TrEMBL record, chains A, B:
CDD domains, per database record: M20_bAS
Keyword hit for Magnesium: no
Pfam families attached to this UniProt entry: M20_dimer, Peptidase_M20
Species this protein is from: Cerrena zonata
NCBIfam families: hydantase
Protein name according to UniProt: Peptidase M20 dimerisation domain-containing protein
Record-level Gene Ontology MF annotations: hydrolase activity, acting on carbon-nitrogen (but not peptide) bonds, in linear amidines
Amino acid sequence: ETIHETASSFGAKGIWGPEKTQTGVCRLTLSDLDKQVRDWFINETKQLGCSIKIDEAGSIFATYPGKDNSLPPTAIGSHLDTQPTGGRYDGVYGVLSGLEVLRTLKENQFVPNYPITVINWTNEEGARFPMSIMASSLWSEQVDKKTIYNLKSVTDSEPVTVEHELKRIGYLGDTKASYKHNPIAAHFEIHIEQGPILENEHKEIGIVTGVQAYAWYKVKVSGKASHTGTTPFSARSDALLAASKMIAKGNEIATKLGGLFSVGILELSPAVVNVIPSDVSFTMDARHVQDETLAQLVEEAKLEFTKISKESGKSISVEFDHIYTSNAVKFHPDCIKCVSDSATQLFGESKVRQITSGAGHDSCATSARVPTSMIFIPSRDGVSHNPEEYSTPEQVENGFHVLLHSVLQYDQL
Amino acid sequence: ETIHETASSFGAKGIWGPEKTQTGVCRLTLSDLDKQVRDWFINETKQLGCSIKIDEAGSIFATYPGKDNSLPPTAIGSHLDTQPTGGRYDGVYGVLSGLEVLRTLKENQFVPNYPITVINWTNEEGARFPMSIMASSLWSEQVDKKTIYNLKSVTDSEPVTVEHELKRIGYLGDTKASYKHNPIAAHFEIHIEQGPILENEHKEIGIVTGVQAYAWYKVKVSGKASHTGTTPFSARSDALLAASKMIAKGNEIATKLGGLFSVGILELSPAVVNVIPSDVSFTMDARHVQDETLAQLVEEAKLEFTKISKESGKSISVEFDHIYTSNAVKFHPDCIKCVSDSATQLFGESKVRQITSGAGHDSCATSARVPTSMIFIPSRDGVSHNPEEYSTPEQVENGFHVLLHSVLQYDQL
Ligand SMILES: NC(=O)NCCC(=O)O
Ligand SMILES: NC(=O)NCCC(=O)O
C-alpha cells in the first residue's frame, strides 16, 4: 500500500494498464517531487520516534532507537529516486520496506538491542546527475565531495549542479557524509532482481552474495564520410559498418567468457540517408562476476575492435574512453548468513537460491566499509527501469519478511 | 572564377583550408541566399541576350537564341542549391558551365542553329525539402504539383512549404512545369563524379551512359528494453545487436550481387548506457546498375533481416517502410555519342572512360522525356556533400570544353 500511495502522490507517470497502480514513476533525484517524498518520509519516521540526520549529500538517516544506543545502528538502505522512465519498485521498495520494519517494531513495541536506521541514499540512479550510486559512494569515501557537488544535470534544459539542487530543495545537511563520522554497523538492502532468473526458476527469494564487476567505455569509431551511391565498397571507410561488426564481436567475446556485453547508446554523424557515416560513437557496458575475466573481456574487445577497424578501410580508427569501472563485490558472510537463515526458515530450501547481482546498488559502496548483503525478490519478465516493472504483492511481502528477520538476527548477533 | 565568385558571395561556409576559395557552400533551396544567386544568374544571362522563363517550381530557363527559334532549345541543366554541408562544385558547376558556354558563344559571336537554354532546376538536393530531383521530376511529370507544393522544410525551426517559399522569394513562375508545355530538345549535364573512379584510374572525363537504380527503405527493428547487467543473453531481445548483424549482412549481400548497401542514419531508444535498446530504426540505401538485381538485393535483405530478427530473441521483429525507388536510367545514344566524340577528340582514348553514375541527378528526370546524357570530371578523393569537395581548375576547364563541344555537336545533329 505504501508503495502505491507514494507512487501516486509523488511522481506517477507512464501508464501501462487500467488499474491506478499500473503506472511507472518519474522522480528524478533532487527534483521537487523528490523533495516531497523526502519530507513525507521524514514525517513518517519521526512519528515512529526516529531521529533524523541529513548528510552533506542529502542522504537521510532515520534512526529508530534500541536498548543500547552507544553503538552504530544496523542500516536498511536503498533509494527513493527513479529513472525518468522508472517503475514503482526499483529502490523505493528497499526504503519503504525499511520503513515497514520500523512500523512493525513500533506496532509490536519491540525494542531492538541496537538502533536501526533506514537510509534514503541520494542519486542511486545517476539519471539526472550522471554518477550512479552517488551519495553512498561519498559516504564510503570512494568519491570526493567536490566531484559530486559539481556534477551537472543532463535532464534539465538549463543544467544545474548537485550542490545547487541540494540547497534549493533544502537537503544540504550538516552531517558529514563519511562512514567514519556517521558510522553504521551493517547494511541490508532489499531490491527487485531486475532480471529473469528467480522468476524463471520459480524462486521466491534471492540471497545476494555479491555483485558482478562492470566497466563502461565510450567507443569512438572514425571513418570517412562519402556518398553512398558513388563510393565503391573498396574505397569506403564506413564507420557504422565497422561499429556494427564490433557490436556483434563484443557479444561473441562475452559469450565465450561467460560475461555480458551491451551497447545502450549509439550516435552517428553526419546522419544523412545517402552519406556514409564518418563518425560513430557507442557505449560499451561489459560485465563479469570476476574482475580478472572482466579485464580480459575488455582487453579482447579492444584488440578485436582495433582489428576490425584496420580491416574496414584505410581511414578507419577506433578509440576507447573509460567512463567507469565497478569492481566485483563479495558481500559479508555474517550478513549473507542472516538473509540465508531467514529466507530458508520462511520459505524452505527449494524456494530460495544464492544469486549474484547483475546490477550495481548502494550496497556495493557500503560493502567496502561495513558488513553488507542484499535480498532480491522476482521481477516479472525481468523488466526494470520501465513503467511495467512489477512484483506481486505476495512477492513484495515475502521479501519484507526476510528483511525483517535478517535485521533482527543481525541485531541479535 | 565564376564558381569561386558565386561561392563567396552566396553562401560560403565550412572553412577547410587557408585560401579564401577553400570553404564549402551552404545554399539551401529557396532560401534568401538561393534567391540572391538566382537574381544574379538571371542578370548575367539577360546581359548575354537570353530570354528568361520561370516555371511553377521556380526552375529558371535562360534561353540564348539560335538561327531557328521555332524548335525547342538544347538544354544544359543542373542546380544551384547545395547540401547544408555542401561543397563548391556539386550542381553549381553544371549551371555555371552552361553560363560559360553562353558567354563563349557571345564572345565569339557564334550563333547556334537552334536556341540553347541553361536551366537551374529547383531543389535537386532534397536537403531542405525532403525530395531530391524535385523540380525536374515535376517537369517530367513523374510527381505532381500538389505533392511538391506541400513538402515541408526539415531544416527550419518553423517548417514552411515549398509553395510558401517560392512565393516568398518571388520565384513562383507562370510557366507550366511540364515537358509538354515547356519542351526542350535534349538535356546535357556536367557534374563532378562524387566518387573516386576517375581519379583512381587517372581519367579526365567520364562519359556517363546511365545511372544505377537505387531504393531507400526505413528498417525498424523492435525488441525489448531490459537491464544490461541483469538480463542474461538468453533472455534478451536486443534490437541493436540484431540491427548490427543486419547491417553486416546487407553489406555481404550487396558485395555478392555487385551492388551497394549503405546505412546513413540509425536511431535508437531508450538510449541509456545500461538499458538494452528496444527500438532501432535505420535507413537502407541499396543500389545496382540493373533494376532486377536491385530488386533481388532488396528481397534478399528482407529475407535475411527477418531471419536475423527471428534468431535474435523471441520478442524481436523487423519492418520495412519503402521511402523511394529510382529505376536504372540509360542515357540516349545520340547524346552519349556527342559527349564521347568530344571527349575523345579533346583528350584521347586513354584519358576518358564510360561510367555509370552512382548518384541520381536532374538528368534522370529529363531522360524519361528527352535525349539526355552527362559528363563527369574527377572529384578529389571521391568526396562530395562536404566542404572539402574539390576538382582542380584544369579538371573544371576540361569538363567545360567537353560540354561546349557536345552541345554544339548536338546542335549540328
Ligand atoms: N540497479 C541499477 O540499475 N544500478 C545502476 C548501475 C548498473 O547498471 O548496474
Ligand atoms: N547527386 C546526388 O547526390 N543525388 C542525390 C540522390 C542520390 O543519392 O543519388
